[in-house]
Structure formats: structure tokens, C-alpha cells
Amino acid sequence: MAEAEPASAQEGAELTALIGATVPTGFELTAAAEVQEKLGSASSISRDRGKIYFEVPAQSLPQVHRLRSVDNLFVVVQEFKDYQFKENKEDALKDLEDLVKKLHWTDPLKIWELNNSLKKKKTKRKKHNLQSTASKEKLNGNGEEEGTDQKDASKQENCAQNTAGVEATSSQDTETIQEVASRNDDEEEEEDNEQADAKDDLQTGSGSKTKAGDSETSEGEAKVLKFRVTCNRAGDKHCFTSNEAARDFGGAVQEHFQWKADMTNFDVEVLLNIHNNEVVVGIALTEESLHRRNITHFGPTTLRSTLAYGMLRLCDPQPTDIIVDPMCGTGAIPIEGATEWPSCYHIAGDNNPQAVKRAANNIGSLLKRNENKESSTSSGIPLDIIQWDICNLPLRTGSVDIIVTDMPFGKRIGSKKKNWDLYPSCLMEMGRICTPGTGRAVLLTQDKKCFAKALSRMGHIWRKGQTVWVNVGGLHAAVYLLKRTWERAEEKRSFW
């Protein structure tokens, strides 16, 4: 009997997971490159835009949660690349019901349990760190309260009050997955702890106390898991809605596992993703989107941290590069930059004093968080924030390596009419501060017509490279990678 344990430990250590990740639309290749670089795994990109899939050992789950380009994560139960739906609605839905019994649930549920146990341990560690920090502040007598104008991040859930997800009116049915304030997943000490926890759980086979099947409460009574099914459907050849698919599939899940359906307070979220003839069944590993990780003070147009990461990665920052965001808003781009590329120097600026205040508060929150890391020895981050005029920047000509910014769309901020004057002036001033020949800019805008016209007027200083089409809050926008030519930009005035 004593020799059987190492075998089970070995079996647990060999458990692998096929992970699905939702990423900013258009940045699938960027996310795949990050997965290859940080996890050593090749990714396949889904035909359904905004998703990638990759395989990792179960003990790599902590690193998976630290990926910077992914919004939500799930473990794939099974995927069908060419699923043949029946033409009759009742038959098609009956097939989805029958599918539940045929799926290989065992390993994906083990991954879910392991993921759940890691989250619980992490929460305990955070509470412990917060308590020790609070006691230190009491001893020092400097526990100052930080002022904030934060608006609560609203949970967007359009769920039908049954076993299932949501019904949209168009042929593309999706549910907005919960988006709540951030997770702080980039602490080195925590990473070591989580990896050790993952290995321990695999070797002992303990997993989560909330077992998917025969779990027990502290009183020894069986705990019934609560679940919901979320269906995301895209395509115009289905004879059923996402709501109907989730309802019937969810009914079969309930019958199969004897779980209890609960739309809001659930333990397990089963995902049913249908894109034309591609069907993927998964189990969610994230309760909240990872894209707000560095932001505590939100503005009217706060950029997703995952999109900011994609934009920065597009311009390939090198050590000692000076990176400027001249229209930083709440500071999502420079904060992501300073966190991920600390060997560069980041400068953020905006003409709106309220935006500068929000960005400064976000930087302050990041600094405070860094101070709370017990293993941290750094005294700050390489980032400064300034209020300035985008058309008259207080920066030396040719002194900046990279410019990355989210330009006004003319919707919630500014106007399309003002953009016709603003965009050419911006591109001219950006060209002046950017290093000729090697400088580059990554600019996001939804006002593509205005940008194209402005760029045609600035063709002597900017050459368009790559264009990435993205979806920003339902708006069809573009990220442009521009290369600075060797042409000297005209100087408006002497800055120094």
C-alpha cells in the first residue's frame, strides 16, 4: 500500500489542462506569443474571434492566471470542430441534452477543483497580508485614509431566470461575463507560494474542499454545488437561441450531476460556446475579468489593461526606451507599461486635470500595493505623470522612443469635428518628439476616416505599418503601428 502513493502523485503531476482564454479581439496572435514566451505552450486561435486555446500541466495554473493579455480563462471539457446540428429545433436541443452524458468531465473538474483551492489559499494570504499591514500602520500611527472618486465597477449580467444564460436579438448571442475590479497577480512571493500549493494539491490529491461530486461540508453532510450555464452563440444557421440552448443543456447538467441551478450565487459556471458549427464546452476558471487589474479610479473611457498590454507589446519595447502616452486618461497604458517593462522609462500626460488626478491616484494605488509586498525591495516605479497640452509637449525634439496612446474617438470625449484639427496637430507634435528613423507609435482610434486623412498629410514623418482591428466596447476601432521616418519634423518653438 505504501508504494501506491507515489504512483498517484505521479498521475496527478501529469494532469494536463486544455485552457481556453478570451482575449481582446484582434490581439489573438499577441496573446499566443505571450503564452509561448511565458508558458512554452503553442496556442491555436479559434475561428470565433477573441479566443485562443493552449495546453499546460495542471501545476502551471498560477502562471496562467498571470498572463497579461487574457480577459477570462476556462478549462475545456470537450471541443467539436464540425458539430452537425439538426435542422429541427427540438431535435437539435435534444442532441445538446444528450451530449452532457457523453462528455469527459472528470479531468476538467479536477482542474476546476485545483483552481478553486488555489484561489482560496490566495485569499487567505491576502487577508493575512492586509491584517499585518494594518497592524504595522497602527504601530506607526500613519494609517492615512486615501481619498477616492472611484465609481463602482458595475456587474453586467443579462441572465434569464432559469438554468441558462442570455438571449440576444441578433444572430450573435453573447453574455457579458462579470467584470469586477482587479486581481493583483504579479507578486513574486505569491507566485512561488501558488506553484508550491499547486504541486502539493496534485501530490496529495486534496484539491478543493468543494469537490465536484462527493464533497462534504464541515458537518459531514454532502454539499450540493450550485451552477449556471452560460451560452455564447454566433452564427445565423442555428434554429435555436442561446437562451434555449443554455436552458436545455443546463437541465441535462443538473440531472447528470444533481447540482442546483443558481443564476447569481453559483460555484460552477459551465460555458457552452457555439460558433457556427464549432462547439466548445468549458468550465470557467475566473469569476471576474482580469482586465481591470491595475485600475482603481475609473474614468468615462478607461482602457482595458489587456488591450493596453497588447498595444505596448506591438511596439516591442527595449530596455532604456522612453515611452510616452500623451493622452493617458486614467493611466491604463503607462501603468501597464511600467509594471511589465520596468527597464523602460514611462511618461504619462493629459490636458484634463481630472484625468491627471485619476491617473495619479491609480499610480499611488500601485505604489501602495508594491509597498505591501513583503518581498519587494523596490522603492517606486519608472513612471511620471504631467498635465500638458498635447499639441505643445514639454519634451525635447527627438527624445522619445515610443508613443502609445488611446486617441479621442469623438464619442464620449471630444467630438468628430474637433478631431479634424486635433489629429493632424497630434501627429505633427508626436513626430517632433519621436526619434527619427527608430521611433514608433501605436495609436488606437475609432475615428478611422479622420485618422487616415491626418496620416496622409503627415506621410513625410510617419509611415503606416501594421493595423489591428479591435472591438472596444462594441465600437469597431483600429490600432495603428506607425514608424517614424528619417525626415526632420518642423519645430514650433524652442522647448529648452
Describe the structure.
The chain has 496 residues and is an alpha/beta fold. It has twelve helices and 16 strands. The chain has helices at residues 4-13, 28-39, 61-65, 89-102, 106-140, 188-204, 242-257, 305-314, 332-340, 353-372, 416-433, 448-457; strands at residues 16-22, 43-45, 51-57, 72-80, 172-173, 226-234, 260-261, 268-275, 278-284, 322-325, 345-350, 383-387, 402-406, 440-445, 462-472, 475-484. The strands form two sheets. Strands 1, 2, 3, 4, 5, 6, 7, 8 and 9 form a nine-stranded mixed β-sheet that branches. The chain has a seven-stranded mixed β-sheet with strand order 12-11-10-13-14-16-15, sandwiched between helices. Helix 4 runs parallel beside helix 7 (242-257), helix 5 (106-140) crosses helix 6 and helix 11 packs across helix 12 (448-457). The radius of gyration is 25 Å and the shape is elongated.
Q: Quick one: how many beta strands?
A: 16
Described by strand count, sense and barrel closure, the largest sheet is: 9 strands, mixed
Please estimate the helix content.
25-40%
- What is the percentage of strand-forming residues? 15-25%
Mean pLDDT: 79
Topology as a string of helices (H) and strands (E): HEHEEHEHHEHEHEEEHEHEHEEHEHEE
Shape: elongated
Low-confidence region ranges: 1-12, 136-189, 204-210, 214-220
Q: Gap between N and C termini, in Å?
A: 79 Å
Number of helices: 12
Q: Structural class, please? A: alpha/beta
